[in-house]
């Protein structure tokens, strides 16, 4: 199959932004697999020998776990990017845990294969460098958000980010998982979701959250959601639709 028509590349915007000749560098080594919800891609301290590219509606998160068992999400990655050894020059120990939030297809690539492709193509290297900068911006903004912003604003920010990736008002997320990702007790999160529902911003159902009023939810969220989106727009040339869904990334420069 000719790489520029390979359907595997269409589900992930980072791969889709590659030029045909750069896709050809990766195509023979990409493995498509279905990932289950809560599946661990790698644990803290493990050597990261593979990069995972969420495709379609699949979503993964980088999670920090403390000694007392508490967890908090520091970055969420969907079809706009990749998770794993994107920056490193080889197999290095992971600082965080990577876990699948929303089940679905993912493309997997050996880290070494990406390094070889970077060495062969300045354009591909440039695209992944720009994405790495955006991923770091998301992590840094998450740190600031977790430290400074109230739970309602943080929760609204997180819901908006998931809707951006799924392109749907119905978000298949449980109270328990969202509480873990936000680093709060489930009872605290339940009160927060109830408040957002009373403001008619969302509807809470068993195993899912429905966004009822996105503009009002954006107004409720802290500035972190907008700040990260603006950085993606500036650095990666991200294009968003009216619903906030990411549509495309600027192709890699020649």
Describe the structure.
The protein has 9 helices and 15 strands. The protein has 2 domains: 3-121, Jelly Rolls (Sandwich), CATH 2.60.120; 130-254, Arc Repressor Mutant, subunit A. Strand 5 and strand 6 (71-77) form a beta hairpin. It has helices spanning 13-16, 20-26, 111-120, 122-148, 151-166, 175-182, 186-198, 214-220, 224-236, and strands at residues 31-35, 40-42, 47-48, 50-54, 59-65, 71-77, 83-84, 92-93, 97-102, 104-110, 170-171, 202-205, 208-211, 239-240, 246-248. With 254 residues, it is an alpha+beta fold. It is 41% helix and 24% strand. Helix 6 (175-182) packs across helix 7 (186-198). Residues 149-215 form the HTH crp-type domain. Keywords: DNA-binding, Transcription, Transcription regulation.
Briefly say what this structure is:
It comes from Methylobacterium frigidaeris. GO terms for molecular function: DNA binding; DNA-binding transcription factor activity. This protein is an alpha+beta fold and 254 residues long.
């Amino acid at each position: 199959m000719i790489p520029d028509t390979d359907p595997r590349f269409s589900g992930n915007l980072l791969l889709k932004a590659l030029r045909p000749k750069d896709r050809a560098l990766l195509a023979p080594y990409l493995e498509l697999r279905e990932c289950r919800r809560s599946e661990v891609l790698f644990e803290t301290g493990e050597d990261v020998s593979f990069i995972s590219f969420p495709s379609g509606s699949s979503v993964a998160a980088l999670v920090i776990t403390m000694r007392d068992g508490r967890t908090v999400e520091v970055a969420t990655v969907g079809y706009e990017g990749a998770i794993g050894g994107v920056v490193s020059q080889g197999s290095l120990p992971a600082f965080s845990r990577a876990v699948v939030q929303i089940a679905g297809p993912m493309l997997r690539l050996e880290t070494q294969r990406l390094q070889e492709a970077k060495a062969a193509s300045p354009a591909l290297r440039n695209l992944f460098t720009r994405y790495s900068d955006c991923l770091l911006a998301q992590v840094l903004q998450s740190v600031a958000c977790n430290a400074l912003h109230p739970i309602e604003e943080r929760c609204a920010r997180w819901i908006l980010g998931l809707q951006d990736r799924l392109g749907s008002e119905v978000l298949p997320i449980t109270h328990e998982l969202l509480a873990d990702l936000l680093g709060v007790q489930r009872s605290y999160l339940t009160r927060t979701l109830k408040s957002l529902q009373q403001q008619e911003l969302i509807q809470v159902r068993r195993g899912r959250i429905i966004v009822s009023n996105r503009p009002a939810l954006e107004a409720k969220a802290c500035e972190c959601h907008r700040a990260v989106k603006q950085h993606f727009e500036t650095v990666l040339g991200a294009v968003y639709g009216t619903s906030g869904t990411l549509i495309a990334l600027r192709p890699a420069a020649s």
